[in-house]
Give the backbone structure.
Amino acid sequence: MSTFYWERHPEGPFATLIAVAASYCSPDAYDGAYDDLVRRARSAEADDDEMRVFKAELRQALADPSRLPRGELSAAVEYDDGSDEKFLHRLWHDLYGDESVS
Amino acid sequence: MMFWEAGAAHPGLLVSDGFLRVARTEPAGGDTCGVRWVRDDVPDRDARSERHVLAAGDAGVARACAEPRSRAEYAADMRQRAVLSQEREAAAADAAVRRFDPRRAGLPEVSIADPAAYLDAHQAERPWLTAAGGCSPEVQRVFAALDQGGGHAHIRHEGWVTEEMSERRVAYLEDPAQIDPAKRSSGIDGVRTPEGPHRCRETTSRIGNPDAFAVAFVRGVEHPTVKAALDMAFTPGRIPRPVSLSIADLLGPDGHRHCTGWRLQPVGDSMAVAREHRAAWVDARAHGRHPDAPEPKAQPVGTFAGGTIVFAFGPTRARDGYEVVTMYPRPPRDERQGGSR
């Protein structure tokens, strides 16, 4: 019945990546959300466990996008980039700049 | 002769042709009084020759009760129960709207005496407020409170948005919140500051009745999951995850009938490609270029039965807490098939 992947699979693979991306990058996100995500990613507060998991899952997804649960990232975020891979690369670049993915 | 009939505890099983469908129900507690033997030896105006006999069940011992009523009496009783059920639902919805506390939803307080004055004063420049014009003061209060918050649910997902506006929003990214027609047709968002292109999911939807919209909102913000999100300690830059709740839980078993929507047509089998083409087409049109991408198309959503209502959150205008930035119905997953890529 639940719409969202992280509701159906709270402990599922990439649940944090998909939930955070949906919260800040989807058409439902509040005005200024993407800028807040960039600031949050770059501030690297020690107690921000969610962003630590998010970054680790983003790395894993970029290393092998086929490991993402089929269709879930696209359904949650509804990006206009054309594919999960293009969206994730844009996200990494915007959040972490030239930092190496691997 | 006796035959099985069902639905003593389930008026929804009574169908309009007066014939009670045979269906065995097992209430959660194991009580089978929802299924009972009904006499057919009482003369009955609409008696039928069909007899549906259910064999003795394999799910335990059914407690059969002798039913003294005729079929017509039984049907009349069921109709009466259905009416009472609807009246109870209406009373419960009314009570939910009456106890609405805007502050618990991160919204400014609006007294019951204020909403009509607010709607009258602002509806010229905020046309979505006209939807609540004929509603009760309690429902008007919900709209007045929402309109003074930072959310856009009542602007983009309520009945003031016509079917044509919904279709054009999902196909051409024309934002109902944008009241300047030239900017709307150029895909400029009506809410974002500073101005920017409008974004829309592959499905746009609305709750077409202002009373139902208000009930969905107030019941939603009372739900423990949404309440937990709204009550989260405010930390700048962090927001609660979106939440989905069953339409039936918020609006009753027929609540989906208040919901309509339009869906972008996939390109080939891909909705991701359809969204990419839509963005390119709208951008070209806004800048006076000939679009390379095909014109986007939309189709009506078949049904919202089994769907959810989504609540997404953001910081309050004062940036001291969280509020609902949008609320909208979403069709079930099989209705969105093809839309996940």
About this structure: Residues 1-63 of chain B have pLDDT under 50 and may be disordered. Chain B has two domains: 2-91, 99-171+202-271+296-336.
